[in-house]
Write a structure and sequence with these properties.
Layout: H1 11-39, H2 45-72, E1 75-77, E2 80-81, H3 89-93, H4 112-131, H5 140-162, H6 167-171, H7 179-197, H8 202-206, H9 213-232, H10 240-268, H11 273-287, H12 296-315, H13 332-350, E3 358-362, E4 365-368, H14 380-407, H15 417-422, H16 424-428, H17 438-445
Helix pairs in contact: 1-2, 1-4, 1-9, 2-4, 2-5, 4-5, 4-7, 5-7, 5-14, 7-13, 7-14, 9-10, 9-11, 10-11, 10-12, 11-12, 11-13, 12-13, 13-14
């Protein structure tokens, strides 16, 4: 006798988890690929976009081979799971479980294959976000090595520590959907990578007009709505908290965009389109660690904070003499690192215990939730959020620095001077737009 599926499988939860994963995948390709390609100078459009596609592909391969289990498998060390293949039929068709974290959540109702793919798209977008800090000068061969190595040695540690049942989760640090694991990690590692690799050509730093703001806006729109899967998928169920996370995500993002635009208008007399995109990103990032833990007012407050503090970070702090020595091409330090840090800390202040991620059956234990300072916590949650952030920053900074220094022993981290001058055509033998003549391509390269 044949049965259509095992009893533990809920087709609705499985469908939502697969859809959410696809939304997050679309944030990377084509979302960030298009956003980067339109945001940068014409001569770097192809290289910037293809860095995203390469990262997506290379991360998936190592994720299946050993990284998934290092991040979500059986505990090996307090901060890391045991490396193992995620390929066998029994493994990928079996019921999904995160062994070291299983006691803190209901039994999952979809197969392991769904969970592996869902967590892969989060891993992939992290290194793609990191790329935004080094666009316009990182040697592609160095990038090709860096992506799988960084994913294996750096990302997996943060993911297991916070989401896989590792020591930070046992300490009580909360990161709903990646403010620390993804954005703070990418912002920190991107900043260190920008410092180690060195700046773009001075001519590019002085004159770096986006080659198509309209194309960048298309990528930004995909990024925004794709975030519904980013935060809405992390309860692992199509439950009420997933809906709340989606609503809070969009609320904070809208407020962040509006506040950043207002800040631009007050400071520079004109509302900047790219400034609005940065405000959108800061809002998305800041709500991510708190999306299912805060109520609507919490989302609004986080959006306001995300529109102000990262704005000052990008427009003031990153323009000081010291910070200008480090060429963070797209301001990943501010829009992801700073916003992710703020969002994580706001969990310790704004988390509302009535926002139940999972509903309990015991009157004395109504479910799984988090309590922030404004709702009666003594400040303990804020303190552990600070400790979690400190670990992510320190580990990513050291790990990224060491990896790049080792890679530099084998291949140059920077493109050659000729490649830096010409751009895409010198690196890939292709350009973003067919201009019809060698003279036209030379003129575009020299813009």
């Amino acid at each position: 006798m044949l049965v259509p599926s095992p009893k533990w499988l809920d087709s609705g939860n499985n469908a939502w988890q697969l859809a959410a994963a696809t939304f997050v995948g679309l944030q990377s390709i084509p979302g960030l690929a298009v956003l980067y390609g339109g945001y940068v100078k014409h001569k770097w459009a192809i290289n910037s976009a293809f860095m995203c596609f390469y990262a997506f592909a290379s991360v998936l391969v190592v994720w299946i081979l050993f990284d998934y289990n290092m991040a979500f498998g059986e505990q090996w060390l307090p901060f890391l799971g045991k490396p193992a293949l995620a390929t066998s039929a029994n493994f990928i068709l079996g019921q999904a479980v995160v062994p070291a974290a299983a006691s803190g959540m209901p039994e999952l109702t979809f197969p392991m294959a769904t969970l592996i793919f869902f967590q892969f798209v989060f891993a992939a977008i992290t290194v793609i976000i990191l790329a935004g800090a080094v666009l316009g000068r990182m040697n592609f061969a160095a990038w090709a090595i860096f992506c799988p190595v960084w994913m294996t040695l750096v990302y997996t540690v943060g993911a297991f520590s916070l989401w896989g049942g590792g020591w930070l989760s046992q300490l009580g640090v909360q990161d709903f959907s990646g403010g620390y694991v993804i954005h703070l990690a990418a912002g920190t590692s991107g900043f260190v990578a920008a410092a180690v690799i060195g700046p773009r050509l001075q001519a590019d730093r002085d004159n770096f007009p986006p080659n198509s703001i309209l194309v960048a806006l298309i990528g930004a729109g995909i990024l925004w709505l794709g975030w519904n899967g980013f935060n809405g998928g992390d309860p692992y169920f199509a439950n009420a908290n997933a809906g709340a996370a989606v609503l809070n995500t969009n609320t904070a993002t809208a407020v962040g965009l509006l506040v950043w635009t207002l800040m631009d208008k007050l400071a520079y007399s004109k509302p900047s389109i790219l400034g609005g995109v940065n405000g959108m990103i800061a809002g998305l990032v800041a709500i991510t660690p708190a999306a299912g833990f805060v109520d609507g007012w919490g989302a609004i407050i986080i959006g306001i904070v995300a529109g102000i503090i990262p704005w000052f970070s990008m427009n003031k702090l990153q323009k000081t003499r010291f910070m200008m020595r480090i060429d963070d091409t797209l301001g990943v330090f501010s829009t992801h690192g700073m916003a992710g840090l703020l969002g994580g800390l706001m969990v310790g202040i704004l988390a509302n215990p009535d926002m139940l991620e999972y509903i309990g059956t015991d009157k004395e234990a109504p479910g799984v939730s988090v309590t922030g300072l404004l709702y009666g916590d003594t400040g303990h949650q804020l303190m552990v959020q600070i400790a979690g952030a400190a670990f992510i920053i320190a580990y990513n900074a050291v790990g990224t620095f060491v990896i790049l220094k080792v890679i530099a022993l084998f291949v140059p981290l920077r493109m050659s001077e000729a490649q830096l001058i010409v751009g895409d055509d010198a690196v890939h033998g292709e350009t973003a737009y067919a201009l019809g003549s060698d003279e036209g391509r030379a003129a575009a390269a020299a813009e």
